[in-house]
Amino acid sequence: MLLTRILTAIVGVPIVFLCIFLGDMLFYLMMFVVSFFCVYEYLNISKKYNPHVLISLVMAVLFFVFLQFFNSFPVNKVSFSAIVIVLVLFVKEIFGENPKFAIERVAVSFLGAFFIPLSLMHMVYLRNLYGGMKIIFFIFLVVWVLDTAAYAFGFILGKHKLVEHISPKKTVEGAITGVIFGLLTAVICRITFMSDILSMRDSIVLGFIISIVGQFSDLAESLIKRDGDIKDSGKAIPGHGGFFDRFDSYIFAAPAVYYILKFLE
User: What is the pTM of this model?
Assistant: First the structure.
């Protein structure tokens, strides 16, 4: 298992870094694939609610493409897409044969078709900003370090459970350590390669936000998996579980960083 994880990382990490470095369509395609598999795995986790899997996947794909292209569209693309997705889901239910739990199916399907693609699309928005390559590397490094620190120190020092009913192995000590190491990583990133983009104050603010929101995002995914009574979201990434497992931290962290940067401009 450990060897599989290491081999996957040896192959996968350079590919991810190359996509980040080159940006443009290559990075968009990477996030397109990530979004697709995250939605697919989420719908599979939520299968007890009988979501509209095929329709949700198709709409998630079209939504992700729509957000990237059609820049001359005359109205707000997000609002328009939300209305269309809900409309399609209700049409499916109205002309279906079983009205029982219809709202439940619509809600679960909508979360997959709309929210997950929209959240992950913010990674593309971030990459398209001035200094976007460095910003994406910054986010990845902070998340990777804080996750590793939270796991390691939680295992060694952890005594107080954070949210035991959702993620039994996560501890308060691990979460606090994750925030500390996330902040340290943000400061180091600023000193080494982000000084032309971020002030020290802004890097600390972003490091703190990523450390808090990233861990919350991970807990949100754990909540979904707990509800679905599974351990891993999938097996698409050998030794690492699914795409949803590996990119869950960015579901809330990416939008948070994007809008904070917009606020700080």
Answer: 0.93
